[in-house]
Structure formats: structure tokens, C-alpha cells
Amino acid sequence: MSIATLGGQISDLRPYNIHGLMLRSRFDNNKAVEICGLESETVTASDLPIISETWNLNPIADHIEGNLPRSIEMLIGADHLAQIDLDSQRSFGDILATNTIFGWVFCGPESKGTSLLSSVLYGKVDQLQPATILSRPAESSPNIVLTGVKPRAISDEQHITVMDLQMLWKSESLGLDDKTQEEEKDTLNEALIEHFKETIKRDPDGRYIVSSFLKKLSKKPTELKAVDDEVANYLAHDFIERASPRKPDQMAHYLPIQAVFKTSPAAPLGLKTRLVKDASARKVNEAGLNDILHVGPFLLPNLLKVYIKFRRYKYTLTADIEKAFLQFKVAEAHRTFLRFFWPLGISTNPQAKIVEFWATRLDFGLVCSPFIHCQGIRHHLEQAARSRPKDKEFIREILETFYMDDCVFGSDSFQDAQSKIRVLFEVFQDGHFPLKKWQTNCESLGDFIQKISPVEAPEVKAGKADAKFLGICWNQETDKIHVSVKGALSELSSGVPSKRRLLRGIPQIFDPLRILSPSIIAAKVLLQQLWKTKLDWDSPLTGTCLEAYNNFLSNLHKIEGIALDRHYTLGSEPNRMELHIFDLI
Prior knowledge:
InterPro entries: DNA/RNA_pol_sf, Retrotrans_Pao, Rev_trsase/Diguanyl_cyclase, RT_dom. One of its GO terms (biological process) is DNA biosynthetic process. Residues 309-436 form the Reverse transcriptase domain. There is one protein chain. α7 (369-387) runs antiparallel to α8 (392-401) and α11 runs antiparallel to α12. It is built from 14 helices and 21 strands. A 4-stranded mixed sheet has the order 15-11-16-17, with helices on both faces. Strands 18-19-20-21 form a 4-stranded antiparallel sheet, with no helix packed on it. By secondary structure, it is of the alpha+beta class. The radius of gyration is 30 Å and the shape is globular. The longest helix is centred in the middle third of the chain and has 19 residues, at 369-387. It folds into 3 domains: 6-107, no CATH class; 186-475, HIV Type 1 Reverse Transcriptase, subunit A, domain 1 (HIV Type 1 Reverse Transcriptase, Chain A, domain 1, Roll); 480-565, no CATH class.
């Protein structure tokens, strides 16, 4: 049986013991109800609240006498309400008293004047996957359902507005609201990491083996061929293989393919294609694969720490693992849950037969993949630090700032930077993690990478004016960083100034280092003022609000060319550093 719960969440399939029960009133033996119940280890972790005021109603169903336990051991569903309700109710402010065959039952919130309940109940929602029946997929936090509030579907325009607001306020918490520092490691996450350490293996070649926890393209021949070519490429590189026939009673799961396209002039057909398996897909009232996979703890480092590392050294370098997820093999026993169908050759042969494949490498689309990848990299680097004591300090530095598949490091010495490049190649090649893409502010180091790289045809970007690192614009020629405001200028300059246009324009500015913060804050203050005036989203701005809007737009043109030195020390590491903080009053 699977249980559908609040918000449309579906539990995994599990067996339950079923019991027939006769519940009899302790006040009248002639009053009883027969029910059928599911056995569960725990109904709720909360204790029964103690009621101090009963308004002289007797008898009370939940009256606690002596040292009797207050644990809740049975939950009766509403389908039995008619059998136990005596059709008598009393109202006392926010409290509703209902007479039942078991006595008077009290429902409602705690009174403002007197404390009726001596305990506070705490509810927690631990969402593994958003329900597919919802109008919108949830983001990082679960949906909250308010009782007594009529649900209302939101339009695409309203959804975009909500996303803009989330982007705007989340950008303020960089380096301050750090989950990796504040969240305690719960027992589940610790168990997941222990399970990972126990099950990760290496094949004879040294590659890691881990255990996992179509769009309609017929009218788009270019995209159809891009997907068909990518499937063939996966097959050629052993990322997938033809699946073995299912054995009798063998469990299996089949995943639909979702293709993600990105325009890339350098790629064949002008499209960069990524195959993503939709592990969230499921039938109505049945669990999908992502519903029964653990997400795992958040292992990415504080992004601000990564940016500071990027700016620390005279010579800075970044390296990217090629096809990072696909460097992990999936244990053979778990591949049966990663099956999918594809008519190989369909782009040239409309009659191509459908072939059953399964993934042999870690799949995009699985909620556990980011954790497995990050924990796999951490595991490998920790082993490398132990086996290479001479390089331990440098490897620990990489471990602390490794961000998904990007690592950043550097040195104030050219020779030391070369030495670190060699070590990094050796360490990552040992785990079959090819460092394909590189960036550096030094063209000589770029040439050195090309010369010693064990990876065929490495992509090295050095001395370029249009580089980026984790969203920051980086001119490698001048070694300066800046914030792009082109998107914001385009949005704010088009159409009539309004609250919605301002909200859409501000999030276009990605400024994690707060380079333009003294100017951007003016727009946020204006948005706050517009919020207080309760002006409609699309009403034209007038008066002082319009003046402030135009002033911000004018300032945005002026600050467009502002750039800072990437290397914040302007020389060797200083003996003394000062931190200056300003605040707006």
C-alpha cells in the first residue's frame, strides 16, 4: 500500500498489518464502534495536550488521570465520525466542543486570554519530491497549506513575479545564510555518508563505482538528430548499454527522456545536448523513482569562500571536470532501475526499432546524483590527502572550495602554480576525473596546461576578455572583474516604468561580490516604497517614484563600466588586513 498525504506526496510502497478493533466507551458499555486500522510504529511524536478549562462539560474524552501516559496511540479517521458523534456541539470562542460516545472532545487553537493547552505541537514537512498534481513544482522549500484559505491557481505572470522576488531576496544572503554551516548533520545524512563510504568501490582501472539511491521531437528534426546522436555517443563511450532482459519477478524502473538544448556554434548541429532522465515521473497515486531516493545533505561550500579564493592569488586558475556525473559507474545491481527506451537511428530511419537501454553511469535527473557526485569527489580527495602527505595542504584547499565540478586555486609564484597544476592533474586522473576545461589569467600557464595535460585536447581559456567564473564577468587581459548590467538596462528601458518592470530588472544584475551594491540598494528601497503604496504591478509610476526610477536607470548607465582588480591584494600576501563595513540608516 502507498499513502497519499498532504500536498499530494506519495509514500513508498510498504506492507502494513491490518487489525479489526472494537472501541467501547468507558462511560457506557452499550456505546461502541468497530473499525479497521493500519498498524504503524508511531502515530505521532507529540503528546496529548492537557486541557485546563472544560466549561463544566462532562464526561471528558481525553481526561488524563494520575500518571497515565499522554502518548497518542490511535488516530480515528473522519469516515467514522458519524458513528461516534452524538450530534451535540458547543462553541467557546475559538474552541469547539463535540459530544461523542467517548465523551466531550475539544478542538481549536489556544485562547489568547488563558492558556488552555500546556504543550506546543511542532509540525515538520520533509519533502523529497514535489507532487506532480500541483500546478507548479516546488523550489527549495515545501508547500505550506493554510486551513480555511481557499486555494487559488496562479498565472504564469504571477509565478514569474514570485520567482523574481525569491531571486532578489536570496541574493542578499550570500555568505550569511549558509546551510552548510548552520544545519546540523541529522542521523539520516550521516547514515547516507557512511553508506556511501561502505559501498563505493573502484574497478581494476581505478574508476569509481557507486550505488544509487521524449519530448515530442518529430516536428523538430534538428533536435531529434541531436538527441539521437547523443544517445549513440553515450553508447560509444559506455555511458549506457543495452539492458539485459528482465528476469522473472525482477524489479525494474523505466525513465522517460528529457533533452536539454543549449545553442552552441562549436557543437555539431549548433546544439549542445544533455540527456536528462525524468525520475520524477510517476503514475497517479504511485511513487516515482525520486520519491524513494534520498537527496542527501547539501555538500557545496560557501560560495563567498570560493569567490574569495578566486581573488586571493596573483596567478589564479580554475578547472572543470568533463561530464562530471558520467565519470561515476552505477553498480550493476542498480542499473535495472535506470532503464529507458530509444529508437536508435530514428533521425535517419523512421522505422528504427525501439531498443531497451539502461544507464551505466550516474544519471542526470536523479535527486541523489548531486550528493553522490559531491561526496564521491570529497571521498577521492580525502584519500589523496592521506596518500600524498607532501601535497596534503593543497589538496585540502581544493576540497574546501570545490564547487560541484569546478575547482579554483592559485599561487603568487609562477613555479608553484606549475607544481600545483601537475598535482591536480595527477590526483584527478587517478580517480578518472578528466580536467578538460581550464581558465587562467596567465597565458604562459595556459600554454603549460596544454603541454602537460593528460586529457586529449584540453580547452584552455587564457588572456580572453569575455571569460566568466561562476557567473562573475572576468576580463583575463586586464585581470579585472565586473558586473554585467546589460540585461537590467534592457528590461528597465523597455516599456512603461512600473513595479513589475523594476522587479524584473533588479534580478538581472548578478552581483554576489556586491560591487554595485551602493547603487543597487536605491532600486531595492524604491521597490519597498512601491510595496507600501500598494500600487498595482503594472500601473505606470508617477511623481517621486518615477523620478527615483529614472535616476536609478541613469546611474545604471554610468556604473556599467565599473571594474575591480581580480587580485585583491595587489602584490604579495599583506601582513595586515582591515575589513570596512558600512550601513544605511
